[in-house]
Description:
Layout: H1 3-18, H2 27-40, E1 44-47, E2 52-56, E3 65-70, H3 97-111, E4 125-130, H4 138-142, H5 144-148, E5 153-160, E6 168-170, E7 174-176, E8 178-187, E9 191-192, H6 203-216, E10 225-234, E11 241-242, E12 245-254, H7 257-278, E13 281-290, E14 293-294, H8 297-309, E15 314-316, H9 328-333, E16 336-342, H10 362-373, H11 376-379
Parallel strand pairs: 3-4, 3-5, 5-16, 6-15
Antiparallel strand pairs: 1-2, 2-4, 6-16, 7-14, 8-12, 8-13, 9-11, 10-12
Amino acid sequence: MKxxxxxxxxxxxxxxxxxxxxxxxxxxxKQYLMEFLSENTSLKLVDRGNWFYALWNAGSTGKRIAFxxxxxxxxxxxxxxxxxxxxxxxxxxxxxxxxxxxxLAGLALELxxxxxxGAGDWPAVYLIFQPGEExxxxxxxxxxxxxxxxxxxxxxxxxxxxxxxxSIVVRDGLSQPASKGLxxxxxxxxxxxxxxxxxxxxxxxxxxxxxxxxxxxxxxHQGMVLCTIVGMECGSSDFGISAGAGKLSLTLRAxxxxxxxxxxxxxxxxxDSLGDxxxxxxxxxxxxxxxxxxxxxxxxxxxxxxxxxxxxxxxHMDKLWRASExxxxxxxxxxxxxxxxxxxxxxxxxxxxxYDFNDQILPVAVDMFCExxxxxxxxx
Length: 380
């Protein structure tokens, strides 16, 4: 990409980082991105409320293509001494979505340059700026655009540590698993701590359910099926009161949604039986739903070919990346692929306080997007 465009999107990335916003609250982030595109490109901007998309070459008769970037940050405090450190307490871009959005804006800059366009029937290109990826809420609503606009294929990237800087990392088929959050609430009855038999304390049901989860995890599965305990509450620190309520918070994860649903059914059956045993009311709350992310073979092949044309090393992941990604909602609608760009083999991990998006991979992402946006006769 052009050096002046790279400078612009690095500055944009730092601005987005400075004003990091939590999932489904990306108001200023969206505003900054729309203003940047309005001031620096002639792309058509379409405001869809809490998200938007930009459209280039709308009159094309070729197949329509889309690229997606997420905009949200995480509830993690900023601890790095950066000149663009997050000014929002407790919120920071520790997954690199500021970089994803900046890279997609970089694609807009490159497409808007008349000197960039070559011969061929260029497709209409849709640039989707999506909220709420971290909680799985944004992808489902934005993915509907693919059918609304008859978009043929869709692409995204994510930055990833543990791989050489600037390498293109891919995985055939299932790339990231399905997951959801599940809270199991137990409601009993408090009593004086000296008369626990007069109450209904959920601690024993919770303990037995935890043991059930532990044993369940030892069962053999054809693919990954995982239940992670992320939180456990029961009673308080008042030594005069026997607990009367408790909650177990879990993340369920599996290689496909059917296996995840089967795991949930087994957990709820066990929890219900424990509730009946101990006279407890048991209720359930689901959240943060992510479908499986499964790449289309042809689209992933195009991403590999783009990397090879750009002289980028291609690395095939043997194992899926266990973190979930709501790009799976798009792949339910249309063929597409997500690829990863290496941050560096010893780069700080995502979702940790030491992480900041690696600006060195921004031009890699933009060049990949540009190559994928080209007409078929120019991709080879």
